[in-house]
Inverse folding.
């Protein structure tokens, strides 16, 4: 079942299978959080069985034909990425600054030294983690996050626990903390043309 308990429909294009539902639009603001949870569950139910390219929750087409046209234009790119990412998952490690009290504002130089120390600790952990994960991660990417970094790792299905074990073995320098999550669909490792296709008729 999809968002709002609506049945999932299937659109097939060569080797590609697109799952979609007819929903009332716009969503009621009070239902957005519930819809997001339902969307997440639907995506992960499919992801447990095969690799997926997840659309955003608010990817809405005016009518079925606009979806058909979209798939015809971009289907080859989706198929290529699905084959490339077959049997892989995305694991994540968020490393962030642990609250240690207010910043030192006694002087500009003191604040800059404190900030540089935090950044150095962040870079040290990130480098050590990347080295440790190199045997299990076919590709590793880092993005800036609030108060830290988010590290994405593409791993083979079945190696999720190995990823967690390796991350836990890497020492976290003070004042950092880490949080591990996954497995997720390998959305970070999709081609840019698949992440942000030009969509006519989508709103």
């Amino acid at each position: 079942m999809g968002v709002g308990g609506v049945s999932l429909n299937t659109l097939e294009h060569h080797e590609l299978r697109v799952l979609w539902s007819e929903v009332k639009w716009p969503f009621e603001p009070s239902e957005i959080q519930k819809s997001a949870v339902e969307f997440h569950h639907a995506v992960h139910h499919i992801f447990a069985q095969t690799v997926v390219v997840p659309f955003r929750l608010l990817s809405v087409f005016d009518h079925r034909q606009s979806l058909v046209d979209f798939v015809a234009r971009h289907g080859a790119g989706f198929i290529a990425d699905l084959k490339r990412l077959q049997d892989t998952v995305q694991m994540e490690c968020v490393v962030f600054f642990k609250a240690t009290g207010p910043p030192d504002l006694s002087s500009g130089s003191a604040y800059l030294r404190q900030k540089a120390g935090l950044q150095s600790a962040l870079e040290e952990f990130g480098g050590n983690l990347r080295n440790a994960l190199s045997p299990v991660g076919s590709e590793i990417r880092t993005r800036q996050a609030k108060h830290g970094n988010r590290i994405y790792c593409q791993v083979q299905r079945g190696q999720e626990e190995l990823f967690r074990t390796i991350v836990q073995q890497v020492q976290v320098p003070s004042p950092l903390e880490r949080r591990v999550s996954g497995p997720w669909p390998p959305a970070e490792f999709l081609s840019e043309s698949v992440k942000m296709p030009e969509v006519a008729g989508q709103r």
Summary: The CA atoms of residues 65 and 79 lie 20 Å apart.
